[in-house]
C-alpha cells in the first residue's frame, strides 16, 4: 500500500482526497515499445501548474482520476526498461506527468523508462526537488542565453518574477556564473532575499508591468529570463540591447503579448521560448549536469521550504496567491 493525493470529477464536481492505494491501481503508461518503471517516490514539489490543478483553477488535468505532481524524485523499484536498472536514483518531470498520467504527489509512481533522468551522483533526491521543474526551467533559460552568446561580459541580465521558484533559481545560477543580475519583483520586502541570492539591483515590478509602453526604449539589459509574460515581457523586449536575447518561460501576468516587431528588426533581439515538457533527453542530461555543477547548494537550501503531503492543498493556495518564496519541497512520507 502507498499514500497519494488524488483528484477526481466523477459527476463534474471536483474532489481532492488523500487515499491509500495498491501498486495494481497505478495506471499503465507504456507498451512494448515504451517500457515502464515503478519509482519509490521520496520527494515531489508544488509548482505553479500543480497549484492550478490542485485548486481546480485551470483545466490542467486531461485524464481523471489523477494524482497531481509534475515532479518526482526517488529510486527505481521495478523496471521493464533495460536502460533503467532497479536501484537507480531518478528524477522525472514533464511528458504529461501529473496531467495525462499520474504524477509525483504519491509514494509510488509508474512512468515510462524514457521519461526518467538519472540523478547526478552529487545531488540528493531532496535537492533534485528543491530544483524541480522551476529550477530545471531556469537552467534551460540560462542555456538559451548562452546559445545566443549572452555572456557575463555582454552586460546586465534581468530576471522577472524573481522571488518565485523559476526566478529564485535563475538569479542564483546567473550570479554564480558571473553575470550582473537585476531582479524584478512586486514584493519589495524580498529585496534582501534576492540580494543574498546574488542580485545586484532590484527592479520594482511597476516599472515593467504597465501596458502601452513605447515599442523601443532605452536599452538596459543584454538579456533576460522572463517568467511573467504579457505587458512585462513586452516592456522587457523594448529595453534589451542589440543582439540580446530574452528567454521566456512563464505567464504569471498573462498569456497575451502586445508588442511590435521593432525590437526584432531594429535591434536584432531574440525572443527564445523555453518549455520543460518535451525536452529531448540529451538536453535534459546537460541541464541536470549543469545544475549539479553550477547551482550553489547553500543558496538552494536558503530558498527552499520542506512540507509534508498533508500540507500540499494549503501550499497550492499560497502559490497562486504569490505568497510562496522560492521553492517548496514535498516529503511524500511525512
Characteristics:
334 residues, alpha/beta, Quinone Oxidoreductase, Chain A, domain 1, Rossmann fold, 2 domains, seven-stranded mixed sheet, six-stranded parallel sheet, 9 helices, globular
Short description:
By secondary structure, this protein is α/β, with parallel strands linked by helices.
Description:
- The chain has helices at residues 48-54, 125-147, 165-176, 191-197, 230-237, 262-266, 281-294, 297-302, 312-320, and strands at 2-8, 15-21, 36-45, 71-79, 89-93, 108-112, 116-118, 157-159, 181-185, 201-204, 221-226, 240-248, 270-273, 304-308, 327-331.
- Helix 1 (48-54) packs across helix 9 (312-320) and helix 2 (125-147) crosses helix 7.
- With 334 residues, it is an alpha/beta fold.
- 49% of the residues are buried.
- The chain is globular and about 60 Å long.
- The model has no long low-confidence stretch (mean pLDDT 95).
- It has two domains: 2-119 and 303-331, Quinone Oxidoreductase, Chain A, domain 1, CATH 3.90.180; 133-273, 3-Layer(aba) Sandwich (Rossmann fold), CATH 3.40.50.720.
- The protein has nine helices and 15 strands.
Assigned CATH superfamily of the largest domain:
Medium-chain alcohol dehydrogenases, catalytic domain
Helix content: 25-40%
Task: Name the overall outline.
Answer: globular
Q: Which parts are unreliable, with pLDDT below 50 for 5 consecutive residues or more?
A: none
CATH architecture of the largest domain: Alpha-Beta Complex
Amino acid at each position: 500500500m502507498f499514500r497519494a493525493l488524488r483528484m477526481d470529477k466523477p459527476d463534474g464536481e471536483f474532489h481532492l482526497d488523500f487515499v491509500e492505494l495498491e501498486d495494481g491501481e497505478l495506471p499503465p503508461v507504456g507498451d512494448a515499445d515504451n517500457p515502464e518503471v515503478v519509482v519509490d517516490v521520496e520527494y515531489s514539489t508544488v509548482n505553479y501548474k500543480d497549484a492550478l490543478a490542485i485548486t481546480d483553477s485551470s483545466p490542467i488535468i486531461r485524464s481523471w482520476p489523477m494524482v497531481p505532481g509534475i515532479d518526482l524524485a526517488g529510486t527505481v523499484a521495478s523496471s521493464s526498461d533495460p536502460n533503467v536498472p532497479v536501484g537507480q536514483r531518478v528524477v522525472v518531470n514533464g511528458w504529461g506527468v501529473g496531467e495525462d498520467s499520474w504524477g509525483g504527489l504519491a509514494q509510488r509512481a509508474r512512468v515510462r523508462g524514457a521519461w526518467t533522468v538519472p540523478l547526478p551522483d552529487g545531488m540528493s533526491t531532496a535537492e533534485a526537488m528543491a530544483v524541480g521543474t522551476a529550477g530545471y526551467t531556469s537552467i534551460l533559460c540560462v542555456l538559451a542565453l548562452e546559445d545566443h552568446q549572452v555572456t557575463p561580459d555582454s552586460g546586465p541580465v534581468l530576471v522577472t518574477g524573481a522571488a518565485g521558484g523559476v526566478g529564485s533559481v535563475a538569479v542564483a545560477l546567473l550570479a554564480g556564473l558571473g553575470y550582473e543580475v537585476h531582479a524584478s519583483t512586486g514584493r519589495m520586502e524580498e529585496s534582501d532575499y534576492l540580494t543574498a541570492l546574488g542580485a545586484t539591483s532590484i527592479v520594482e515590478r511597476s516599472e515593467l508591468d504597465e501596458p502601452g509602453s513605447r515599442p523601443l526604449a532605452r536599452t538596459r539589459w543584454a538579456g533576460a529570463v522572463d517568467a511573467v509574460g504579457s505587458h512585462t515581457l513586452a516592456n522587457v523586449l523594448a529595453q534589451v540591447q542589440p543582439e540580446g536575447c530574452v528567454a521566456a518561460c512563464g505567464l504569471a501576468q498573462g498569456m497575451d503579448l502586445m508588442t511590435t516587431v521593432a525590437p526584432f528588426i531594429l535591434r536584432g533581439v531574440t525572443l527564445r521560448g523555453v518549455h520543460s515538457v518535451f525536452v529531448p533527453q540529451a538536453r535534459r542530461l546537460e541541464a541536470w549536469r549543469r545544475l549539479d555543477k553550477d547551482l550553489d547548494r547553500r543558496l538552494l537550501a536558503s530558498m527552499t521550504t520542506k512540507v509534508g503531503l498533508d500540507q500540499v492543498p494549503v501550499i497550492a493556495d499560497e502559490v497562486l496567491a504569490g505568497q510562496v518564496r522560492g521553492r517548496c519541497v514535498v516529503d511524500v512520507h511525512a
